[in-house]
Amino acid sequence: MRERGDAVVETATLTGTQAVRVEVQADVGPGLPAFHIVGLGDTAVMEARERVRSAIKSSGYRFPGARVVINLAPGPLRKHGTGFDLPIAVALLVATEQLPVSVTDNAVFAGELALDGGVRSVPGILAHAVGAAARKARLVCSRTCLCDVALVPGLVCSPIETLEDLTAQGEDRKETVPAPMMSPPLAPIPHLSEVAGHQHAKRALVIAAAGGHNLLFIGPPGSGKTMLARCLPGLLPALTPDERLEAALIHSVAGLDTSSCLAGIRPFRAPHHSCTVAGLIGGGSPPRPGETSLAHTGVLFLDELPEFGPGTLQSLRQPIEDGKVTLVRADGRITYPARFSLVAAANPCPCGYADDARGRCVCAPSMIDRYMSRIGGPLMDRIDIHMRVAGVTPERLIDSCSSERDPDYRDMVVQARDQALERDGVAPAMLSGSRLHQACALTMTARATLLQLSRTTALSGRGITRLLRVSRTCADLEGCERVDCEHVEEAISLRSLVGE
């Protein structure tokens, strides 16, 4: 082994959901033994020195007794994470001629090193795979990543388990395509037919699922709001291949399990009401996606909606409108996708029993107004369906097992969504402007009903637009080409219906 040399190895650092190309440049030269890493790396990158040193020695290689400088280029770009361990080790071994240069040919390296030389997966490995495929390079990573990168089209992966495996790759490099993905066992999802009563609420859920609309349940404790909300994922069709990759990419960047997304299961996120703005929208150092982005292509459920901080709730306004979250920091802008269906639940007052027939509510009218005002008018305006849910009688609940079964709601949802996609290319909740008016094609009576409503209520322009979207979904569920009067009336009633 020579004590002087240099090498360049390609890797990447994560910026949002993108893997930005980084060169790991190694220089081994004369001088007092030292190991320096430069290039704006965070603490995890700086700690790579000890992991790399131990992994190289444990794998049967020799760590150079010379002055070692590792430069991560470009210099102004901040680098973070433990994924630099593997490329730093490879650059050192190539610079000291312990590995041939051919190991690095058209290759991107990403992985964390254990002290015994084992190679581990890192958060965001799917982003590394997407970046490598875009550059037509092969990805060298841990063998445990194969299932995660299986859906990336055009990717060539060379998996390794230990640092020693690189020697075999240098002698006879084998390019391996990812192994077929094995679907994990599916967790049970509550079925809407298991819910007793609540026919109006079920109809609202079906409409929300078919059109991608936002929904708010208001009712006393124990009335079934949470159970109804948790049934929504079971109404939605499985993720398409493109949606699987989008959802799995966000979960991978966040360091979460991607198996359910890769298996086609839509995300369901239910953060506690103590969640902060950064936890809901994203942020931190380094920035991480929040719950809105983790719910991308799926459902975001906010239970006890008025208990969330007012600032936290109002931060939802931009993601609901734009379908994305943009974080602006001193060193740049990061954008995360956030196209989700919002389902929220709230008590009607602090004690939960407003409008109760037995008079159990102890809240003054001013307390009730103050409690509901925590949600805020702008956010309420962005929620398409407001549904009041009353408690189910004991007789209805006990006798529910012998009652007749509900229709197959999921088939209804899938047919309506397919009709909308064939006509407009997107769900009704995403329509706007001229595309929305063309899709609705109101009859004369429907137009008159909508005009009368806009004159007699304080609906904003956004509120009218959302009524049109819900009306279009109601028509799709009935298989109608045009939006008629009954569809508009149902959309209007979905802001005031009282459940069974």
Structural key phrases:
500 residues, alpha/beta, Ribosomal Protein S5, domain 2, Rossmann fold, 2 domains, five-stranded parallel sheet, four-stranded mixed sheet, 22 helices, 37% helix, 18% strand
What does this structure look like?
It is a single chain. The protein has 500 residues and is α/β, with parallel strands linked by helices. The chain folds into two domains: 5-171, Ribosomal Protein S5, domain 2 (2-Layer Sandwich); 192-407, P-loop containing nucleotide triphosphate hydrolases (Rossmann fold, 3-Layer(aba) Sandwich), CATH 3.40.50.300. It is 37% helix and 18% strand. Strand 12 (282-283) and strand 13 (288-289) form a beta hairpin. It is elongated. The termini are far apart.
Mean of the pLDDT scores? 89
Shape: elongated
State the secondary-structure class.
alpha/beta
Main sheet characteristics:
5 strands, parallel
Helical content band: 25-40%
The third-level CATH topology of the largest domain is Rossmann fold
- Second rung of CATH, namely the architecture of the largest domain: 3-Layer(aba) Sandwich
Can you count the beta strands? 18
Low-confidence stretches: 179-184
Q: Which CATH C-level class of the largest domain is it? A: Alpha Beta
Total count of helical runs of at least 4 residues: 22
Strand order of the largest sheet: 11-14-17-10-18
The total number of structural domains is: 2
Taking Cα atoms only, what radius of gyration do you get, to the nearest Å? 28 Å
Measured between the Cα atoms of the first and last residue, the distance is 80 Å
Question: What fraction strand?
Answer: 15-25%
